[in-house]
Amino acid sequence: MIRLSFDDGPSKWTPQILDVLFEYDVQATFFVIGQHIAAHEETLERMVDEGHTVGNHTWSHPRLTDLGEDRLHFELKNTQDAFLKLMGFKMHEWRAPYFATDERVDAIAADLGLNPEQTGADVVPDDWMLTDGDEIARRVLHGLSGRGNQGVVCLHDGIPPDGGSSRCTDSRQPTVDAVKLILEALA
Q: 7, 8, 106, 127: which one is catalytic?
């Protein structure tokens, strides 16, 4: 089974991705940044209403393994609290920015009611630094074909609060375009 996941939102591109997912009757997991929740409450509510899973992707997208205990706790808890206040229930899935985790991070996440381990990914096409939806789709489909068309795909529907790395593009429209191409190819 293929599982699409999206990091760094919600953002102005998330509703477009939700439209495509709705068109193809596909459920996904959205790993949200806490700082983005207040500005995109309706989008977050739509995610939940349409049956998507929402996971914690920290408050501000830092590398969790570089943080002290207090800041690490703040990053995960504040995002949990913002989501709980809006939706009335807690998130359980989570993904660390840059997939950077260790036993200490996992333990704090578990103490906050998150799964003991983060949700990883099998296919990571680096869509956050590409400007061509066709290339993103090609990378995803190639990665899935090597896995028997099974696995978790990590895409991005937003941009981290700090703008991401120097290679991060300023648009997720190519990812929106790629999602449609991916789902058409897999239909």
A: 7
Fold (topology level) of 2-186: TIM Barrel (3.20.20)
Residue 155, beta-bridge partner list: 6
Contact 182, 141 (CB under 8 A): yes
Whether residue 156 lies in the annotated active site? yes
Cβ–Cβ < 8 Å for 140, 2: no
Per DSSP, helices labelled H in the chain are 14-23, 34-37, 41-49, 69-87, 103-111, 133-145, 173-186
The rounded average pLDDT for each run of 10 residues, N- to C-terminus, in the chain (187 residues) is: 96 98 98 97 98 98 96 97 96 97 96 95 96 97 89 96 82 97 95
Q: What is the pLDDT of residue 185?
A: 95
| Burial label, 173 (beta-carbon count in 10 A; 0-12, 13-18, 19+) | middle
Q: Which sequence spans correspond to the domains of the chain?
A: 2-186
Closest CA to 180 of 128, 137, 131, 151: 137
Catalytic residue among 52, 106, 156, 157: 156
